[in-house]
Amino acid sequence: xxxxxxxxxxxxxxxxxxxxxxxxxxxxxxxxxxxxxxxxxxxxxxxxxxxxxxxxxxxxxxxxxxxxxxxxxxxxxxxxxxxxxxxxxxxxxxxxxxxxxxxxxxxxxxxxxxxxxxxxxxxxxxxxxxxxxxxxx
Length: 137
What we know:
4 helices, 137 residues, four-stranded antiparallel β-sheet, alpha+beta
């Protein structure tokens, strides 16, 4: 299952160094509540909605020590379905899940971050995991 994990810059740096994200992890995925909110069965549209929800959650993790142009960070991670627990809480955002274990850098499919003076409603830039060192400078 593809999940989108919101991170702060310190967590992304730790992932680059340790090659792991310790669990449990807050994440966002295509869930039944998200399908209802989006009102679509289009996989691409649903994945984008999950990524967008993770980006909003990442904004709340903003680190004042981060570069000014990096306000939102999301990593797309592939995990076994059994590792994912849907958050069943009316107060939770649709698509909110918990990954109940740590994940390795090898499970990270891509990294998504703000670039330049991107507004919070703009798309995030896509990076391969092989670009982490360049991204973190």
